[in-house]
Structure formats: structure tokens, C-alpha cells
Amino acid sequence: MKPERIALFGGTFDPIHLGHLEIARLAKEALELDKVIFLPCRTSPHKQGIETAPAADRLEMVRLAIAELPWAEVDDHDLAAPAPSYSYLTAEEMARRHPDAKLFWLMGADQWRALPRWAEPGRLARVVDFIVFARDGAPLPHSGWEMHAFSGTHPASATAIREAVRNGNMPLNWLPAAVADYIFRHQLYACSSSDKS
Hints:
Blueprint: E1 5-11, H1 18-31, E2 35-40, H2 55-66, E3 72-74, H3 77-80, H4 87-97, E4 102-108, H5 109-114, H6 121-127, E5 129-134, E6 147-151, H7 158-166, H8 177-186
Parallel strand pairs: 1-2, 1-4, 2-3, 4-5, 5-6
């Protein structure tokens, strides 16, 4: 029996937007994935000290965004685990939960370039192959780590979305309708004065 092919897609998702969904869809098609698991993190090790929307809100926005995507799931492992969210620990836990699956880690080209500076990148690479989304040409390989690259473009930016909401504008063309409605109803970002990347 062919093993299930699962991509793990971590991030703050503050908020999740149509760019995230497009990246996941393109990866699914390019690598013939059976499933993409979205993993909102409580605190990214790369964003220590940066305030985010409450974890429960970010988790619910992901749930709303993927509700009609049968190949997408959300897992709150990183939100429940001790902070910060180290990718290698998450991947090892997902490998325990899906022992017969082929696992991938979905990331952007900027994260791929920074990967050697992550905590225990070798342990992560032993558990997953990497799927790298690149806007500006094929990313350079890292010796010994399996990488599959694909390209595409989407203008959505979580930082720009938060800034627009603070300024009284809801960028509907960048957000799933249910997520835009959730942000409006819960008044997320509107009262914040800090720029959360």
C-alpha cells in the first residue's frame, strides 16, 4: 500500500490568508500530497517578543479558512506544547502520530535559506523532506537535505493585512470571507498599535 503523503505547514497564521491557502494548494498538486496539516505555533523561535493575536483566535481562523478543503487539516499541537515551537519537535511528534506516512515540511524560500540556523535542523531533516515555495527562482540546495521546490506568486501579506485593518480597511481580496468576518466580529488587530510580523 502506498504511504500517505503529508505536508506539515507551520506558521503564526496571524491571520491566515489566501496566500497561505494558495501555497498549500500548489504544494499539494506539485508533490501529489494526500494532506496538508496546518500547524499554528504559539511562539515562533524566530519571532520571540513579538505579540500575536490570541492562539485560540488564530486556530479558529485556520479552521474557518480550510473548512471546505477536504485535503487540509489543522492541528493545535504547537499551541498546546511548551513555547517556543521548535519545528524538529513538531515533526518528530507528527512522525509518531503518522508512522506509515511520508512527511514533508512546507516552507518559504527565506525559511529554507535560514534553515541551517534553526534549532536541530539535522533532526528535522531526518524526519521530513522539504517543500520550498520560491517566488524568485529555484532555491539553492543544502547538502544532505531533500528539497522539492515549486514557484508561484500571491500578493497577500499578514503584516499588510494587520496594518490595513488597523487603518480601518478590510483587505477582502486577501482573506477567506469567513476569516474576514471573524476578524471584524472579534475586532482583531484594529486596536493594536504594534507592528506584528
